[in-house]
Fold these 3 entries.
Entry 1:
Amino acid sequence: YIMRKVVIPARSNETDRQIDKKLKDRFSILKIMTKAAINGDVKSLIISGPAGLGKSFTVEDALEEWDPSEDNYTVVKGYVKATGLYKTLWENRKAGNIVVFDDSDSIFHDDTTLAMLKAVTDSTEKRKVSYLSEFNMVDEDANVIPRTFQFDGTIIFITNLDFDAIIDKGTKLAPHLEAMVSRSHYIDLAMKTRRDYFIRIKQVVKQGLLKRKGLTNREENKILRFIEQKEDNLREMSLRVALKLSDIIKKHPRQFEKIATVTVTKGL
């Protein structure tokens, strides 16, 4: 599929206080729904939001607290082929198992993987998935994986795709994503503008992101001020930028703004 550059609006009509409350509410609901997935009350959860602003961390933190040994959950990141998806579903098919697809948006752009996902996220009591390939697939113990099996596990999708926007546009992908939303609980983290991004960065910084890196309140505020002043020119608006800036301010406090302007902004 073709990756298109997304133009992010600078602001909406919301005040900073409204944005702050909106994002706190959304991330609070994300925690609640992740726990519901862990408890088995939710079988399929889709989390949509921009990259680098804490959605993956929120989910993985809850999973690690629940299962520190990682025996009952699997996190899959990046490109996934149909064969890999089928094998992963098989290995996590039992009730109590959770598979997380994080930034694996390729699975939403292939007819074969979409068909599998619709099957395992179905709301019916018995969710059966099939893959009628010409060869036998084997699991980690070299056992042949059946060409049809019942999936009783839980799936969490963490994606940068805005399903609602794609569905509203009526693209070729829209009916498939609409079917996924119909079968799943869907959380849109509601970060649509650069101002939303900044308020979210500020929230996480105030929660201790930079304190854990050994920064003082003064250094923390200086970084937030820099991000706010340069938000229209930053190469990306994410927590990664705040962490990069923390490295600079610790090593080169006197030259912080000069170095930061060169390394994380464009057009200045």
Entry 2:
Amino acid sequence: MKNREAQLKAFGRLLDIMDDLREKCPWDRKQTLQSLRQLTIEETYELGDAILDNDLEEVKKELG
């Protein structure tokens, strides 16, 4: 059970960091649904290329 508690605590910290970045990062603040759409499409193509190249390290990077 302690491991589960540690995982939940770590996940909570991750969520806090993400909230902090969204509030303070100028890049994040200026994103719109349209800009995120385009960026997501580009990332999807990059992931697809990594898969076709069988480049597992690049797949991990693109999924990260």
Entry 3:
Amino acid sequence: MQTLKKAIKKAVKETGIDKALKQESAVFLWEEVVGKTVSTATEAKKVENGVLLIKTQSPTWRQELYMQKEEIIKKINRKIGSRAIKEIRFI
């Protein structure tokens, strides 16, 4: 007999919800990944199809973060434990 935990894990994986949950966790991990200074000037809005949408306070922040985008994606995916985030779009 399966434990409830194993049954839930299996159901989540079989339905594909695990991928969506991992992607969405990027929103909640944003501050931890980029730090307090950056997170006070930005807001993680949502994830759609592997694209993390980040609202920035100014064009200066948008440009600075764009230059660091690949490194930020690597850090987020490392925290998540998968390659759930493929792109970051700064608005």
